[in-house]
């Protein structure tokens, strides 16, 4: 079995969040979805689990953070082109998300950032494949 990652996110409205993630290109896995959770496929090995806040609370004894008020993480998503970065960012805003920063072009890397409906931050980026193999230039800060 390949290694997989399931990012569990607490959401206020599972159906509304599911529609948002579908609008930005994720696919819903019906087999692992119901009224309290949606399994959203990014790839064959990467999933975002949208969990209602009451259901999410069954996984932890900690308070669930309000991602609109505090940073809970920033999930970077790689893309094959600058155009793909723009497309998901524009789709996120059109679906009700919030742009955190517009295009940042460092030559070897291009990025944008947005929040989903619940304030979870995503940073789509493209990196020149030749640079990715060698590592970033020493004089360039790594930013997203």
TrEMBL record:
InterPro entries documented for this protein: Glyas_Fos-R_dOase_dom (IPR004360), VOC_core (IPR037523)
Residues covered by the VOC domain: 3-127
Name the domain of life.
Bacteria
Q: Which Pfam families match?
A: Glyoxalase
The protein here is known as VOC family protein
Task: Look up and give the organism this protein is from.
Answer: Sphingomonas quercus
């Amino acid at each position: 079995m390949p290694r997989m990652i399931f990012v569990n996110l607490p959401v206020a409205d599972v159906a509304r969040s599911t529609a948002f993630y579908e609008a930005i290109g994720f696919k819903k896995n019906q087999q692992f979805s119901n009224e309290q959770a949606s399994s959203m496929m990014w790839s064959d090995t990467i999933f975002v689990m949208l969990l209602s806040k009451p259901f999410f609370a069954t996984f932890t004894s900690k308070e669930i953070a309000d991602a609109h008020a505090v940073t809970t993480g920033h999930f970077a998503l790689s893309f094959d082109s600058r155009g793909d970065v723009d497309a998901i960012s524009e789709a996120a805003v059109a679906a009700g998300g919030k742009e955190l920063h517009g295009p940042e072009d460092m030559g070897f890397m291009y990025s944008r950032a947005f929040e989903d409906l619940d304030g979870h931050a995503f940073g789509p980026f493209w990196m020149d494949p030749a640079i990715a193999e060698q590592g970033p230039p020493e004089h360039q800060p790594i930013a997203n």
